[in-house]
Amino acid sequence: MKRFLAYLHTQRRALLVWALTAAIFGAVIALYDLPLEPFGYAAALSAAILTAVLAAGWPAWARRCRELEQLAETPPGRDPALPEPEGGEAGLEAAYQQVLRGQAGQMVDRAVEVRARRDDMLDYFTMWAHQVKTPLAAMRLLLQSGGEIPRADLERELFQTGRYVDMVLGYLRLGSETNDLVLAKTPLDPVIRQSLRRFARMFILKKLTLVYNGTDAAPVTDAKWVGFILEQLLSNAVKYTPAGGTVTVLADGRMLTVADTGAGIRPEDLPRIFEKGYTGCTGHAEPTSSGLGLYLCARAAKKLGCTIFAQSEPGHGAEVTLTFPPDGILYE
Fold this sequence. Notes:
Layout: H1 2-10, H2 12-31, H3 36-73, H4 92-144, H5 151-175, E1 184-185, H6 188-206, E2 209-211, E3 220-221, H7 223-240, E4 246-252, E5 255-260, H8 280-285, H9 293-304, E6 307-312, E7 318-323
Parallel strand pairs: 2-4
Antiparallel strand pairs: 1-3, 4-5, 5-7, 6-7
């Protein structure tokens, strides 16, 4: 009954037109004092025709309602199987269906994007959780060993834990939909010196030589994200350079380079070192390597419109270079 009343509601204009027409004819006949019997016959005949037309349209309308109810119970798709629109492809219902298909497509694209971001985040945090366990376990062993705790070892593990926390914060900022870039002409020297100060204790503990002669370079970029990339590169350089080795930082023009005298990277690994989770031969030899640092560097570099690449020879160290875009060109 409710559905039938709803159908009559959709036909309210036809019913209203019939009622107004009948009222007008009745008023005219009454004003001219004409016989009412012909008017009664005409009204009854028109009401019968209107009833027949409404009855003929009822099955199709009810069938379309059932089809739409079934469609509502099916999972959303990019191209929902809507019933044929009334009025043909040029009608109003066809236009509504076109809008609905567009909205459905956007919802599917958004769902795919959200699922991909969720899977990426799950993969990242899974790897990060395994990675951060290493320094935490090392500190636990140092505390449980009894006697005097080696301060240098504890400092090293504590610093590494802090680095992992910085990495996860950077990852969350990279995945954020808000744009926190502050692009401006940025002197690199203060950014580099601040990052080097954070690693000063690690250079001392590992007896590494640092080579940095200052720079006047000031590309258009974001200081915070350049610092984030630089610290990831310094972290790798300190990690893979043996005691007594050398780490060199060079900034010239639009290029910022971090080089070390570590074991280097094999040629077959070079094309993939910026992939998420890829560690290569050198990373396999290092238990704390997860393949996340350079992956985050590549994502941050893309955010800045920069390019990043590495070159190396096994046994002769590695060199990673960040290239800034020309002034006035902020994105690729």
